[in-house]
Automatic annotation (TrEMBL):
Gene3D superfamilies: 3.40.50.10890, Ribonuclease Z/Hydroxyacylglutathione hydrolase-like. Residues 15-244 form the Metallo-beta-lactamase domain. Residues 260-375 form the Beta-Casp domain. This is Beta-lactamase. Coiled coil: none annotated. InterPro entries: Beta_Casp (IPR022712), MBL (IPR050698), Metallo-B-lactamas (IPR001279), RibonucZ/Hydroxyglut_hydro (IPR036866), RMMBL (IPR011108). SMART domains: Beta-Casp (SM01027), Lactamase_B (SM00849). GO terms for molecular function: hydrolase activity; RNA endonuclease activity.
Amino acid sequence: MTISVTFCGAAGGVTGSCYFLQTDHGNFLVDCGMFQGSKTVRELNYGKFPFEADRISAVLLTHAHIDHTGLVPKLVKAGFGGPIYATEPTCDLLTYMLPDSGYIQESEVERLNRRNARRGRPEVTPIYTREDAENTLSQLKTVDYHEWLPVIDGVRARFWDAGHLLGSASIEVEIENGDKDGKPTRLLFSGDVGTGEAVFNEAPEAPAGVDYLFVETTYGDRNRPVMTDEERREMLRKEVQDALGNGGNLVIPSFAVARTQELLVDLAHLFNRGQLPPANVFVDSPLAQRATDVFAKHLKRGDAQALSHPKFHMVPDVQASKQLAQVTSGAIIISASGMCDAGRIRYHLKNNLWRPNCTVLLVGFQAAGSFGRVLQSGAKHVRIHGDEIEVRARIRTLDVYSGHADQDMLLQWTKNRLPVARQIFLTHGEEGARAAFREVLMAHGIEDKLISMPMLDDTVTLKKGKGQPAIPQARLSGEELSRDDWHNLYAGTVTALSEKLRSLETAEERKEMLEKVLRDIGSV
């Protein structure tokens, strides 16, 4: 019996989660996520899969976030026709999230192609379309927590509440290996581990005593202060009050699923107690609106009612979204994407970043190379849709809404899974976070030889047999996954050059500087 796993995403980086498992019984995936971050990383979404889609028998999904599910329609389009297993809330969310993702692909490509036509460049095609995503939905199959699910012959799986998002799961997999003792090989994929403190989620759970453990490490290098609901709301109150008191708008880039709903519940609480000045909250994300309906379906009555507070206004269409550009003060605008890389948030940033009385509040993890990370790092000039924008708005970060466990929580979760007989694989984290968490594990008595940090497209054989697993070539290095790329450097260089030119007093000085730059690059 041969059993192998290939790390096709979130290995050396945070996004694109995808494990490709090969066995003598057949092949299956755990997650099939979209890459986010720098343009170099995002380009992986357009390339071929490092496996044959039509030879995949099943897909198991840990939760609905796009970095774990976003390439499933591409997989189906490439020939996968098997079942896609997930919890009922995950399936409900994906009913809206995947078509929305397809629509975003089409919209972004349409805009890019208009620019390419003017530049004389060839057209590009979307990763998949809304129709492709809708064609995927019939393959979704719901599963219950704690119940064994037959995946393929000789393989079964069980889902455990990961506490990260409505419907999120850690997935336990058992594979019959033909040993004389009859014991299967047991694997546990953490998915994204929650905090146990989030607005909607319970504490994460999972079994102990597995052979192989796959652990996310998004926040493996840091801890957040432990706080009560009231303390979290007080931090939000202060940020909102300061922003509105500054006389401008408050723009919140927010992931449409979970983060937006958590913010709405806390804002409703603060409004109801008179702890915030009167302000209209515009939720400008069609996906957030539909996801809010799903949350309301699965939540207890009080939280569901909070999501429909009279101060909250769902922006119905593109025309209404454009009209928000006329609102220059006193509004709270919540829009996706949370990392500011696509969607309507780009337009709201374009309209507000240059205003010194406005505030941008980042409330989620910003991956390396993402536009959100650029703002978070203090950029003074940025480019949006080809236009240069001077950043005059206040850029703030409120890191208390993350659905990811911090270092101490991850450590406790991992220790609760012990003993691990064979290997602990650290995944879903940038290199610094993974390395820091590895040191913490060793400091708590876990042997170095038990810990592995696989890179993108690494294949590990868990059990050797007669078969030989397919081993793909690495598409990117770990360094490329966890840092800004040349596209980021180019954008920074162009804006820095423009800023320098403006600082010079005469046309002759500007001409001399440009001639020097051209000489340095060999163009004159």
